[in-house]
From TrEMBL:
Domain Glutaredoxin, first and last residues per copy: 18-82
Gene Ontology MF terms: 2 iron, 2 sulfur cluster binding; disulfide oxidoreductase activity; metal ion binding
Lineage: Bacteria, Pseudomonadati, Pseudomonadota, Alphaproteobacteria, Hyphomicrobiales
Pfam families listed in its UniProt record: Glutaredoxin (PF00462)
UniProt entry keywords in alphabetical sequence: 2Fe-2S, Iron, Iron-sulfur, Metal-binding, Redox-active center
Annotated binding of [2Fe-2S] cluster, by residue: 31
Gene that specifies this protein: grxD
Protein name: Glutaredoxin
Domain of life where this protein originates: Bacteria
UniProt-listed SUPFAM superfamilies: Thioredoxin-like
Family to which the UniProt record says this protein belongs: Belongs to the glutaredoxin family. Monothiol subfamily.
Amino acid sequence: MDMSIEEFIGNEVKSNDVVLFMKGTPQFPQCGFSGQVVQILDHLGVGYKGLNVLESAELRNGIKTFSNWPTIPQLYVKGEFVGGCDIIREMFQAGELQQLFSEKGVAVNAAA
C-alpha cells in the first residue's frame, strides 16, 4: 500500500533529526532561499536530510499543507517545524538556531 504524501512527510520528519524541504538538493540548491538555508546548516556543520520538492508536485504541495506554511524551504528539527529562510536566517544571526539545535540534542560541528 502506498503512503499518502502526509504520511511520507510525517515519516521523514520523524525519522530524521533535521530535515530541509527545499528546491534542489543540498549540493545544488535551485533557489536562493534554499541555498541560504543550506549555507547556514553547512556553516553550523549540522547533519540534515534535504528533500527536493521540485521532483514532485505532490511533495511540493503536500509540505505546504503539512506545515500550514506557504513557502519553501522549510526546516524541521526533531519533528518540529522551525520555519523558512527568513526565520532561519534571523534565528541564526541571533544565535537562536544554534541554541535550538543544542536544546534538541542535535550535534553542531562548527564553532559558530
